[in-house]
Amino acid sequence: MMDPHTASPALHMLAFRLGDETVAMDILCVREVLDPGDITRIPQMPDYFLGVINLRGYAVPVIDLRHKLGMGRVAHTPATRIVILDLPGAGELQLMGVFADSVRGVVEVATDQLLPPPSMGAAVPQPYLRGIVRIDNRFVLVLDHERLLTMDEITGMALSTPSLLDRR
Amino acid sequence: MIDRPAVMRLFGDEARELLIDMESLFLELEQTPDDRALVARVFRTMHTLKGSGAMFGYTEAARVAHALEDVFDRVRHGRLPLTSELLGLCLEAKDHLQTLLEGDPADVPVAVREASDALMLRIAAFEHDEADVDDGQAVHAAKPYDTGVPEHMTISGDATGEAEVCLWVRLTPADDWMWRGLDPLRLLDSFRGYGPFEVVPVFADGGLEHVGEVPFPVRWEGVLTGRVSADVLRQDYAWLLDSENLSIMSLGKRSDCPPVRALLSAAVGGRVNDPLALMAAARAMEREDICNCMDVQSVASEVAQAAEASSSSIRVESAKLDRLVGFVGELVILQSRLSQLVRGVPDDAMREVAEGLERLAGSLRDSAMSMRMVPMGSTFHSFRRLVRDLAAQLGKKVLFEAEGGDTELDKTLIDQLRDPLLHLLRNAMDHGIEPPEVRLATGKPEEGVVRLGASHSGGEVHIYVSDDGAGVDLEKVRLRAVAMGLIPPETEPDTATLLALLYVPGFTTAPGVSEISGRGVGMDVVHSAIAALRGSLDMETTPGRGTTCHIRLPLTLAIIDGMRVLVGGDSYIVPLTMVEACLERFVDGAVRTVECIEYRGRLIPCVSLRLLLGVPGEQPGYERVIVAGKEGHEVGFAVDAVVGLQQAVIKGVGNLCRNVAWISGTTVDADGGISLILDVVQLIRFAVGSVGPEAHA
């Protein structure tokens, strides 16, 4: 246990697995963790976009984070979960679900344990990383939820309607 | 202490409405300056504003309103002609009053105070112009308004056209008046604005001799003689007082009324406890005969009417209403889930309950939705002012005509429609209507006409903005499009295609950037705003004859009736208002995304939703075709199966749906799944565009 007087402020993060990697995200952006249910496909979306789920009457989009980060696809097993994230959007929060191969739990690390991400060689592309921490002798990649999926990306995900001119 | 903010809110809302009324009256007067009834209404509005403004401490506003009232009093008596200059000044004064009412009445900045002085001097100047002015009046206008109490005034008959009547006024203060900042004495004084008002206080236990506490009247009884009807008086105070606080009864014409004094002594004597007894007592005192049944009846019915009039509408915060509609939406979803579950249960009693609930949920939905429906009139009205000011700014003569102001539309929709309509009107004024000299040269009347109209048609609202101006210069549009590289130089696109170019972001034909428009952020914004409301925008233009923009909108944003269809494993909702018919087709071999089918002797495009939306699975040999569309623009959509009707509570997917072509939203199904709502207008546009005119040949 850390000495509360000398330790720097703690970060609470949700750790989950994407393939062989353990990644973590700030717990403050995690709304809840769900068992996967029915997903309604939305046409004309990129293939990492899986569709929408019914979250107590609200339609929440779900993406395959592993696929989006170029780490293969999430395998549907009994351990598969959907992590619902609050993404800061244009003035309002946008809920977004991401698939995880399994959820490990909440970990606590001190702020000064968060090291800058390696410039290369990490399984996750560097722009999506906030840093890296060492937990139980393993490196855990900390994802930057703000950069994971920008609002532009969400709105730009869909192909826009073919304009009149495209059709001629 | 008085709860000041609550008072401000109470007064603020009403003052805003009074100002809106006043503005529309001014604008109407501009068309018909001789309308005496309108002048009388303006006068009354000002008077109310002045009285209640003073009562709530807005002395500065009351001062300005008082000056205006003076001028209009002279207009009312025909001593001052109502020129457009005077009306312009009145409109300015109205804007100034608005500024004053929005500010803190206790702390009016010096600059604003000076602005009121300047304004009042200009108003006073109108009075000086008149030969028969009495100097007291003119000076009075620029003098600070001091007491805050409307002074004694008689409304002369020629303006209002009402006979002199006798009214019984009973004012019963409520316990919370002190907290609301309402002073009964000032209220009573304000009645004097309508005519001579005799009033007596009524104390508990019938007199002053009650010992031990400070006597305060439990109510006041008064008789007002003047040329104001009971209804008007009730209206004037309806915003302030509930019917139990203020009751007004007509005692009849003044000539056949018993002397006021006698009435009042009857009140003090405690003989007047209810309205019926009042008349009976009055009659009995004056002429010994007993009042006849007719009179009693009329008083009774009038009292009943008064109660009805004041309870027929209430103000509700729109957020509360939104919440209610949200709950009703959830209820509707649950109800349809229940209906679906019960379908397979052989229990008649349970089915009966489900059916009853279905009916009830339907009615609840309709009435909750209707609560949010408001007429478009007030929005139209605000545009009238815009057109007037813009015309002056542009040096153009424009007549603004609005029709269908009573067309009702969801309040949220109206709010979101304001900006697009504003853009269209500005466009019509700036690009459409030509300057007067050009119009005269082309043989048109000097004054251009801009029309704004709304009407209901089926489950839709149609709104149009039209002008009789120059129309869109299609050649200029073509050249500009070529210059921007949007179309190849040698093509000659048809009118519809050229007009559609106007929706391209950044596209403008205006030679320069003017203050009003021409920055290239116009039509594309309008187009996407209307599309976001699940509506459509069409433009028609005739060179030299003008342009009409036609907007079609769904009545509401929240809940629609839809037809649920299945394609592969996916479920989609087609808005029922768009559904025309249901056909079938047998498919042999591969299909194309858009083909043609026969419908009522014509060939219409038929879109395979399976191909268009990329639904995985095998193409079935037998498909249902939903024919959707309106007025000769029908398009068929091939689907696997039609499930049936469903009330769809529309849920957006945040910003996600905005760019997803052909999907306007999502809804939660009875089984807890999610269906996508098809954007039929977009789909039709796509289908018609990709088949082209040859399909109709």
Automatic annotation (TrEMBL), chain B:
Tagged with keyword Transferase: yes
Entry protein name: Chemotaxis protein CheA
GO function terms (MF aspect): ATP binding; phosphorelay sensor kinase activity
Domain CheW-like: 559-689
CDD domains: HPT
Gene3D superfamilies the UniProt entry points to: Histidine kinase CheA-like, homodimeric domain (1.10.287.560), Histidine kinase-like ATPase, C-terminal domain (3.30.565.10), HPT domain (1.20.120.160), SH3 Domains (2.30.30.40)
Record GO biological process: chemotaxis
Reactions accelerated catalytically: ATP + protein L-histidine = ADP + protein N-phospho-L-histidine
Annotated positions of the Phosphohistidine modification: 47
InterPro entries: Bact_Chemotaxis_CheA, CheA-like_dim, CheA-like_homodim_sf, CheW-like_dom_sf, CheW-lke_dom, HATPase_C_sf, HATPase_dom, His_kinase_dom
Alphabetical keyword list: ATP-binding, Chemotaxis, Kinase, Nucleotide-binding, Phosphoprotein, Transferase, Two-component regulatory system
